[in-house]
Write a structure and sequence with these properties.
Shape: globular
CATH topology of the largest domain: VC0802-like
Strand content: 35-45%
Number of strands: 7
CATH superfamily of the largest domain: VC0802-like
Length: 138
Amino acid sequence: MGIKQISVFLENTTGRLSDVTRTLANAGINLRAISIADTADFGILRLIVDKTEKAVDALVSAGFTTRQTDVVAVEIEDVPGSLAKLMELFQQSQVNIEYLYASLEGQAGKAVVIFKLKDHDKGQKILGEKGFKMADNF
């Protein structure tokens, strides 16, 4: 189980993020989670959306460069220490996390943490064995 993340490569100029969100809105795409990392010259916008293929088509048609990546979305309790427990599991299991971001989208009292793992399959297996709920959409 896993979900597809869309990465959009953006020039670090005024209005580019607005262009992406307008493109998605015009295509009827709903954002579920979003993260941006930037350098002096460019940014990488990471998105989880409700209609991945339609979003990619709309973005590419608008001239954006995109890439799809497999990520793991894990539901945790929205209470202090929940993320720490998950991090300890990855540490003990020697699962390397390349990056993560979170969304409060989900059931009340829950958070969804999106992980890009170095070994995607190993991470999913360990999470499943330990009873963590993984989402294939949210």
